[in-house]
Specification:
Blueprint (H helix, E strand, L loop, with lengths): L1 H24 L3 E9 L1 H13 L3 H9 L8 E9 L3 E6 L9 E8 L5 E8 L8 E5 L4 E8 L1 E8 L3 E12 L2 E10 L4 E7 L17 E7 L4 E10 L14 E4 H7 L11 H12 L1
Parallel strand pairs: 8-14
Antiparallel strand pairs: 1-2, 1-13, 2-3, 3-6, 4-5, 6-7, 7-8, 9-10, 10-11, 11-12, 12-13
């Protein structure tokens, strides 16, 4: 009888220890995301917007629409702990090539100017998003000919809860509808099983981790595919020591020559920030 009683006590203690360990590990780990961009739909929208202001350029974009794939999927990894998150391109995506693109605009005086940017799975070259959950600040590291580290307060988001649920990566998530202060509409699915108020693309402000994020206006979606708990803090070696640190406002002033004339206003700057974040 005494032996049976001792076995019961040991089992109870082990059970409590395992539960406590799971709750602790639930605060730290990695989440793999698929970022899906519906390329053709987004290009059609940009073409329509451009056509209303510059008909010739809008028509030019439509010529290439049939050659554009319907969607593009990018593999991302989110590192999280109680204090911060880091979102970066997934090294295991199977490719090491760096993609190089060019943004063109008519500069002052009508001359054609270019702003080159690099994107690749190498964490030192690709875009990295860091959010400090304690200070509500974000850092965005990107490569535009040179590396830049932009600092910006986390954008406030107003959330409205729904009674809709769906399973993402094997976890039940609740849907909420959100809007930024600049009226960008968001749809998020979060879980309280990971008690960290964060998510991809600097999303935050919910009582748990966001595992699904939809930005309808930009035709972009994020979906978690795999979750792994650990005892590690988020990595800090993603920062490039050669990156130029500046505020986002300083960045937009620096590259203001790439913005069309009469478009260098606060609304245009917020649109650039949205493009960098999402």
């Amino acid at each position: 009888m005494i032996k049976t009683y001792l076995i019961c006590i040991i089992c109870c203690l082990l059970g409590s220890s395992l539960q406590g360990q799971y709750a602790y590990f639930g605060n730290r780990g990695t989440i793999h995301f698929d970022k899906v961009t519906y390329t053709k739909a987004r290009m059609r929208q940009l073409s329509n917007e451009m056509s209303s202001k510059m008909p010739d350029r809008g028509a030019g974009m439509m010529e290439y629409l049939d050659k554009v794939p319907d969607s593009h999927t990018e593999k991302l990894t989110l590192f999280f702990d109680e204090h911060a998150t880091v979102l970066m391109q997934d090294d295991s995506s199977g490719t090491t090539a760096t993609k190089r693109g060019t943004m063109r605009n008519r500069g002052r005086g009508g001359s054609s100017q270019r702003m080159r940017f690099n994107q690749g799975p190498n964490n030192k070259n690709g875009k990295v998003l860091y959010q400090n959950l304690k200070t509500s600040m974000a850092d965005i590291q990107l490569d535009i000919d040179e590396k830049y580290l932009l600092s910006e307060p986390l954008d406030s988001i107003t959330w409205r809860f729904t009674e809709e649920f769906r399973s993402i990566a094997g976890i039940s998530c609740r849907r909420v509808n959100g809007a930024t202060k600049d009226s960008l509409y968001l749809i998020a699915y979060y879980t309280e099983e990971i008690p960290v108020s964060a998510g991809p693309a600097l999303s935050h402000g919910l009582p748990g981790m966001i595992l699904g994020l939809v930005i309808p206006e930009m035709h972009i979606q994020y979906w978690a595919t795999h979750i792994a708990y650990s005892n590690n803090l988020v990595p800090s070696d993603w920062r490039d020591k050669k990156a130029k640190s500046m505020k986002f406002g300083e960045f937009t002033d620096l590259f203001g020559r790439y913005m069309p004339r009469n478009r260098q206003n606060e609304s245009a700057k917020k649109r650039i920030l949205e493009q960098l974040v999402y």
